[in-house]
Specification:
6 helices, elongated, mainly alpha
Length: about 150
């Protein structure tokens, strides 16, 4: 139909965009009709490559674990630096107790907007400052009381 590969690609892209819903429905029907055969092939492949898949999974898990540990170390280093820099001004926003009189790490950070925490990949001073805007520092007692209040206890 097309001798030029670029035109063929453009046509295919346009066709798939225009017929996306039809393709989804066709794929769904195909998988429903051929579920047993597809699952059988998957199981057969798994049995033949079990050791390779297991080895791949272990390598991937190890790599992800190392990345998470690195990200967490970076995050906590930033938090510790910020905390030490601002320690003199920090106090519990409920009872007013000053944190500089206690052991390091005495302050708890309460997220007022649920789910608004630093993501693993976005740990920078800017993201830390943004997170700190959406929460308050509390002493451990007040922090526990605030969570009991959220649960209706």
């Amino acid at each position: 139909m097309f001798k030029d590969t670029e035109k063929r690609r453009e046509y295919a892209k346009k066709y798939y965009q225009e017929h996306r819903e039809e393709r989804k429905e066709q794929d769904k029907k195909y998988h429903q009709r051929h579920r047993e055969a597809i699952n059988g092939r998957s199981m057969e492949y798994y049995k033949q490559h079990k050791e390779q898949l297991k080895e791949y999974s272990q390598k991937r898990h190890k790599k992800l674990r190392e990345q998470i540990l690195t990200w967490n170390q970076k995050k906590y280093k930033l938090i510790k630096e910020w905390y030490n820099k601002n320690l003199d001004a920090l106090c519990c926003s409920d009872c007013g107790i000053k944190f500089k009189n206690f052991l390091p790490g005495f302050a708890d950070f309460h997220h007022e907007i649920k789910g608004n925490r630093i993501r693993l990949t976005g740990c920078t001073y800017n993201s830390l400052a943004k997170e700190l805007e959406n929460g308050v520092f509390l002493c451990p007692n007040c922090h526990r009381i605030s969570h009991l209040g959220q649960r209706g206890g």
